[in-house]
């Protein structure tokens, strides 16, 4: 809340009127009500931060002039990426260490820089699931925005459009993997049985282990009984992760679920290409 008030004050100050030599603001729009996208030419100072030492694995040393500007203002950089003519930096102002090496990243922002100057910023004006934690490349003309929760999940896509315009959009219905030779549907948060059906329609076939599994994990046994023989194993502690394997013409897809529900929900996936 402190960071939001600080940002609101910066947005309101008349010093932010664009000088003649400043970069023109790009055409920007957010189609996600929980994320605000505004022109901005000056970063506010970050609030005092604790817990960064225990969460260094989620932070990034600045590599670009844009990232160095963010760090100089006291924010913790989580990721930098190029999108068309822009340098895009995700950064946070609050860090909370959790269990099992997890961390919650708060007061998150997305800075859009061009030719070394800040031109826009995206942030969540109220606390919630859409808060920005980090970013990852997504195809040739987009970046995927992830929240900063202990178990990070994607919340939106930042897309480059005509005239170098930028739009924050809902998650794409599918993701190209393995150089575009295969597609993975948006299965995040779906119960694994629903995700399985979606994957089948996209050419991913369940791949049960070739030999007998080690041990006698009751969760694995129950998932197999429920018609999910592709389950590999499950963790008995922490977030209760389970792993599932699927194969397609492009390679192998490893899907991870979270939670101890009878049918757990998808937390993420990783494509291993041929």
The number of domains is: 2
Please bin the fraction of helical residues. 10-25%
> Helical region count?
4
Q: Write down the oligomeric state.
A: single chain
Order of helices and strands: HEEHEEEEEEEEEEEEHEHEEEE
Which regions have little confidence, pLDDT < 50, spanning 5+ residues?
1-6, 8-21
Could you say which overall geometry the principal axes of the C-alpha atoms support? globular
The largest sheet has its strands arranged as: 1-12-11-10-9
Q: Strand fraction band?
A: 35-45%
Largest sheet: 5 strands, mixed
What is the averaged pLDDT score? 89
Q: What's the number of extended β-strand segments?
A: 19
Q: What class, by secondary structure content? A: mainly beta
Radius of gyration: 21 Å
Kindly report how far apart the N and C termini lie: 47 Å
Signal peptide: 1-22
Keywords: Signal
Structure in words:
The chain has 274 residues and is mostly beta strands. The protein has two domains: 2-172, no CATH class; 176-273, no CATH class. Helix content is 14%, strand content 37%. The protein is built from four helices and 19 strands.
Task: Provide a concise account of the structure shown.
This protein is mainly beta and 274 residues long. 14% of the residues lie in helices and 37% in strands. It has two domains: 2-172, no CATH class; 176-273, no CATH class.
